[in-house]
Write a structure and sequence with these properties.
Elements lengths: L2 H20 L1 H9 L36 H12 L8 E9 L10 E7 L6 E7 L5 E8 L2 E7 L3 E3 L7 E3 L17 E7 L6 E9 L6 E4 L9 E9 L5 E7 L4 E4 L16 E7 L14 E5 L4 E8 L5 E9 L16
Parallel strand pairs: 1-8
Antiparallel strand pairs: 1-4, 2-3, 2-5, 5-7, 6-8, 9-17, 10-11, 11-12, 12-14, 13-15, 15-16, 16-17
Length: 336
């Protein structure tokens, strides 16, 4: 190849480069070669897009992660509008099911959210559809609570989530809505009420002295449940108590709906440790303060609650008058 040919080739290449980068239309076309067919910028997970390392991302309720860019974005927004958090767009998707996982139609979702209204919060109610689904859109706020109810059903509290944060990505209740994965709310359909006799009262416990809790309407003679403090570390909230039923049996339960007494598994006496980090002790009746019992002829339920900082116990006893195992109360009975 002679020198003239080389010059000609170099000039051709230079002209091509100048055309691409100097002509606006062609330059834009060249840029588009690096974009998806949709014309949108690269996705967040694209190698050409900035990605926040997982280790640097602030986890809801987790330790402070200053490298998360959302912190600097929050600072910027606060300077522009100190109330911006209370103006966050809210979307929420829920689904209501029964104890068997079947959708519940016409359940009411009672919704309250904090916002910049005069009262500081707003309220609305929505109904679930035939698939048990409901959606909340078109509102703005920071934090929202959702409680679902329907006549003829119990509202399940165990593992139920009712609190949702939309602005504070660092809050333990921070929620990212996903229509494909709605938040599930569970209800339990009420059954037939059992014929229950009820007694209740309060007793003062003295160390080592049994206190009798008489059973209601029983034909088991002088049957009674006895509660005795058998150990105490001198702190009112740390006890060890013995619960016994002569001629029958006791067993603890943590069921949210203790409506069917078991046939077996009873012991004449059991010991219960009350070592609560809270001074209320047995106040949460679903954590060790509920007991099935069986006399020689009948089944029942015992609930105990300690008064704060005292040795006074409130108790309630439900007894199936027919001797059956069913213990579901009537609608008028306050379950919790």
């Amino acid at each position: 190849m002679n020198r003239k040919t080389l010059y000609l080739a170099a000039a051709t290449i230079l002209a091509f480069v100048l055309i691409i980068f100097l002509m606006p239309g062609l330059n834009e076309s060249a840029k588009n070669l690096w974009q998806p067919a949709s014309g949108k910028p690269p996705a967040a997970d694209s190698p050409t897009a900035p990605v926040t390392p997982t280790a640097s991302r602030q986890k809801p309720g987790g330790p402070y992660a200053p490298a998360d860019p959302r912190w600097s974005e929050r600072t910027r927004k606060l300077k522009v509008d100190p109330q911006y958090e209370w103006k966050t767009p809210i979307e929420f998707y829920g689904k209501v099911v029964d104890q068997d996982g079947q959708p519940v139609e016409e359940a009411t979702a009672d919704v309250i959210w904090t916002d910049i209204s005069a009262s500081g919060s707003s309220h609305m109610k929505v109904k679930s559809d035939t698939a048990g689904l409901f959606a909340i859109t078109g509102i703005r706020g920071k934090h929202m609570t959702v409680q679902v109810n329907k006549a003829g059903y119990y509202r399940q509290l165990t593992d139920a989530r009712t609190s949702f944060e939309f602005a504070g990505f660092w809050e333990p209740t921070y929620h990212v809505p996903d229509e494909a994965k709605p938040v599930v709310f569970r209800l339990r359909k009420k059954g037939e009420a059992a014929p229950l006799a009820r007694s209740s009262g309060k007793v003062v416990l003295t160390f080592g002295v049994p206190v009798r809790l008489p059973l209601p309407k029983t034909n088991d003679g002088n049957a009674a449940i006895e509660v005795t403090i058998v150990a105490n570390d001198a702190k009112p909230r740390n006890w060890q108590a013995k619960i016994s039923l002569a001629g029958g049996g006791i067993q603890a339960t943590t069921e949210e709906f203790p409506f069917l007494a078991p046939e077996g598994g009873y012991r004449e006496s059991i010991e219960v440790n009350q070592n609560s980090p809270r001074p209320t002790g047995w106040q949460d009746l679903h954590q060790g303060g509920v007991f099935y019992f069986r006399t020689s002829k009948k089944y029942g339920l015992l609930k105990i609650q300690q008064m704060v900082g005292r040795r006074t116990l409130h108790y309630e006893i439900l007894l199936n008058e027919r001797g059956e195992r069913g213990l579901e109360p009537p609608d008028s009975y306050k379950l919790y």
